[in-house]
Each structure stands twice: as structure tokens, then as C-alpha cells.
């Protein structure tokens, strides 16, 4: 029977379990895995769960409006899909399917540098859907320049520079399964079609794939970068630049001083510094430091509509959704991602209304206990 029966659960926290049953431990291990013993991933949940909404009554919530302006764009809701690399591990339709689902809902899609599909193809799949490009800031300036040029030409409007990944962390689940997607060479189509990347190879990819993968690993990020290096990106990107992976208010201030447009308060879903602060713990101080100057986005732990509510109440302008949409993609392709976006936003809308608020902009710390 089809039709009225939903194919995926309305409770998005059940997606991981379902994905494990249907897709097996390999793909799910890639998405679910985190750094170390998972303490930061747990801290992300604990930090959100520690806050409690205090609903207000009799405030006429008959009409709500989730619309949100970010970087000069009018968006239907304070939500974008986070960059998640190598989505072909989850579903053969990969990034184009997720991006189409986002575009269908008017939700921006942040495309990972480590996309398994070249960025031009993702752009084509999205039509005029809002798209942002996430940069892994390569050691090789020519490759970075080439990525920025390609992204601009493909209609990506904002640049998200991920700073928390100058090296890949100790990720036991990947290591135990020998499932490092990059080393398997499947994560690199975006690089393997890049003229500047290809120019750095002694032999064509098909003649020496292992050398190509090693070249990729050696240059995909650069632990030597410092704040003044941002000037290079500012010179080569004329749209908004957002720094992803900010947890300290002083780093947020440095971002503002460097002429950046926004930050993402994020610990990469607990995949980088195990033992670090839960992302929601970091949010109020960052928002207090730069909220009047920069757009403050949040990710790491968003699973439900009330999580979205809490992040906004703690000072975020909008949130990025990560793992849940990757599971939705794995379970049901484009339709699965659409289900995840719609469910999350419907639950957020209801939480807003039932708590006595009509717009995301109305939320602040007074909506929470303590
Ligand atoms: C990520 N994330 C990520 N971030 C980024 O800037 N570039 C990337 O390529 C990836 N790739 C990636 C793969 C997978 C499988 C995951 C789970 C995450 C981090 C992502 O953008 C976001 O910060 C986290 O997913 C947020 O944590 P939760 O809410 O998904 O737990």
C-alpha cells in the first residue's frame, strides 16, 4: 500500500536506526561516525537538551511566518542543508538529488568541496535554487582559485570556509572499517574534474588513481593557515564569506575584523575535536560577541523542530541540517530529503505556535527556561 502511509518516520531521530537496518553499517558508519569516543557528539545533544522551552499562552498564533532573510536573500525558513561530502556513499543519486530536494523547498543547499558530483552538475540540477559553496581550503592556491571561479560561474552565491578540518580527526569508526571515503577515491569527483587539480598530477587519473588520491589527500587542507590568509579569499570571492567551525567568541570577533559576513557555530557534528564543547554551549557567547555585525548560523545536533527553536532562541539567525538529510537521502533518495526538510519545518512551525510565537525573529533567550 502506498499513498497516505508515510515511507519514512515522522520522528527524524529514528532515521539513523532505520538507515542502519536498510543500508548496512558501512554507509551509516560514515555518516554516524564521530571523533574519538563520541563525547562531543553526545555533548551536542546534551547542550540542546539542557535547554527547555517555556511556552506562552493566548498570544494569537493563528498566522505564522517562517520567512528569514540571510545574505540579502529571502528564504522560506531559517534553514539550509549543511555541506556533507561524498553523498554517493549514501545513494547513487547523491548530491544532485539532495540539492533538488532543497531547491524544491526553497531551502539553500551548501555543496561540499568533497562532493562526489562535480559542482557544475549540482548547479544544473538545482535550476535557480539558492546554492552556497563550502570550501576545503586547499594548500594549492591555484586549486582554491579554480574552485572559487567554478563556483561563481555555477551560481553559488555565498562561500562557506570550513576551518575546523585542517587535518582529519581520529575517527575510529572510519578507521576500524577501513572506510575512509577519500582514500577509497570515491569522494573526489569535484577535484578530479578540476583543471588546476589535474594540472598538478604527473599522470592522468585513470593511469594512476592512487597517486591522484594521494595528491588529493596532501592538498585538500592546510594546517599552516592563519587569520591573515583570509585576505586571499576576500580578494578572490566577491560574495558573502562565512567561516564554519567557530566556537570561541574571540574567533568570531576575528572573523568580523577580517571582513567576513558570517560564522557557523559548529563542531562539525562532533567529528573533529573530541572532548570539545557542545556547539549549543558555544552559541550564546558567539552571538553576543558578533550577532550585531555578522550572520550567525548554527549546526551540530539539530534533529527536531524544537532544536531549531532553541538554536534561534540562543542567538542563531538560522540553522544548518546535517546527518538527518543524509539518512533521508540514503533511505529514499530525493523524496527522503524532501521528507526530512518538510518534517523538520512542520515541527518547528508547530513548536513556534504552541509556544506562543509567530516568527523566528521573535525568539530570544526569554523563550527558554533559566
Ligand atoms: C560532514 N560535515 C562536513 N562539513 C563540511 O564543511 N564539509 C564537508 O564535506 C562535510 N562532510 C560531512 C560528512 C558527513 C558524513 C557528516 C556527518 C558531516 C559537517 C556538516 O557540515 C555539519 O557541520 C554536521 O553534520 C553537523 O552535525 P550534525 O547535526 O549532522 O550532527
TrEMBL record:
Keyword vocabulary terms for this entry: Oxidoreductase
The FMN hydroxy acid dehydrogenase domain, residue ranges: 4-370
Swiss-Prot/TrEMBL cofactor(s): FMN
InterPro entries for the chain: Aldolase_TIM, Alpha-hydoxy_acid_DH_FMN, FMN-dep_DH, FMN_HAD, FMN_hydac_DH_AS, LMO_FMN
CDD domains xrefs: LMO_FMN (cd03332)
Presence of the UniProt keyword 4Fe-4S in the record: no
Domain of life: Bacteria
UniProt KW Metal-binding keyword: no
UniProt protein name: Lactate 2-monooxygenase
Organism per entry: Kitasatospora paranensis
Protein family according to the UniProt entry: Belongs to the FMN-dependent alpha-hydroxy acid dehydrogenase family.
Amino acid at each position: 500500500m502506498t499513498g497516505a502511509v508515510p515511507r519514512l518516520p515522522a520522528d527524524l531521530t529514528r532515521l539513523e536506526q532505520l538507515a542502519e537496518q536498510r543500508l548496512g553499517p558501512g554507509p551509516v558508519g560514515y555518516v554516524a561516525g564521530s571523533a574519538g569516543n563520541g563525547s562531543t557528539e553526545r555533548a551536542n545533544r546534551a547542550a540542546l537538551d539542557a535547554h527547555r522551552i517555556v511556552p506562552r499562552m493566548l498570544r494569537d498564533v493563528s498566522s505564522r511566518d517562517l520567512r528569514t532573510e540571510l545574505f540579502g536573500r529571502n528564504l522560506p525558513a531559517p534553514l539550509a542543508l549543511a555541506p556533507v561530502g561524498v553523498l554517493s556513499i549514501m545513494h547513487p543519486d547523491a548530491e544532485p538529488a539532495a540539492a533538488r530536494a532543497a531547491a524544491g523547498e526553497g531551502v539553500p543547499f551548501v555543496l561540499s568541496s568533497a562532493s562526489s558530483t562535480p559542482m557544475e552538475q549540482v548547479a544544473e540540477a538545482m535550476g535557480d535554487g539558492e546554492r552556497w559553496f563550502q570550501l576545503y581550503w586547499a594548500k594549492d592556491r591555484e586549486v582554491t582559485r579554480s574552485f572559487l571561479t567554478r563556483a561563481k560561474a555555477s551560481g553559488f552565491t555565498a562561500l562557506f570556509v570550513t576551518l575546523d578540518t585542517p587535518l582529519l580527526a581520529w575517527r575510529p569508526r572510519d578507521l576500524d572499517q577501513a572506510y575512509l571515503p577519500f582514500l577509497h577515491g570515491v569522494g573526489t569527483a569535484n577535484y578530479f574534474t578540476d583543471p588546476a587539480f589535474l594540472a598538478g598530477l604527473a599522470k592522468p587519473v585513470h593511469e594512476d588513481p592512487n597517486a591522484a588520491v594521494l595528491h588529493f589527500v596532501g592538498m585538500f587542507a592546510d594546517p599552516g593557515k592563519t587569520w591573515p590568509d583570509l585576505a586571499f579569499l576576500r580578494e578572490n570571492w566577491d560574495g558573502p564569506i562565512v567561516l564554519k567551525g567557530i566556537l570561541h567568541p574571540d574567533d568570531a570577533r576575528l572573523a568580523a575584523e577580517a571582513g567576513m559576513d558570517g560564522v557557523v557555530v559548529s563542531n562539525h557534528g562532533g567529528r573533529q575535536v573530541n572532548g570539545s564543547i557542545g556547539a549549543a554551549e558555544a552559541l550564546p557567547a558567539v552571538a553576543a560577541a558578533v550577532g550585531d555585525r555578522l550572520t550567525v548560523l548554527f549546526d551540530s545536533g539539530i534533529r527536531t523542530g524544537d532544536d531549531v527553536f532553541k538554536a534561534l532562541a540562543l542567538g542563531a539567525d538560522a540553522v544548518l541540517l546535517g546527518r538527518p538529510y543524509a539518512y533521508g537521502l540514503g533511505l529514499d533518495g530525493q523524496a527522503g530529503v524532501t521528507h526530512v526538510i518538510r518534517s523538520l519545518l512542520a515541527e518547528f512551525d508547530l513548536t513556534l505556535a504552541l509556544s506562543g510565537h509567530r516568527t523566528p525573529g521573535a525568539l530570544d533567550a526569554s523563550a527558554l527556561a533559566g
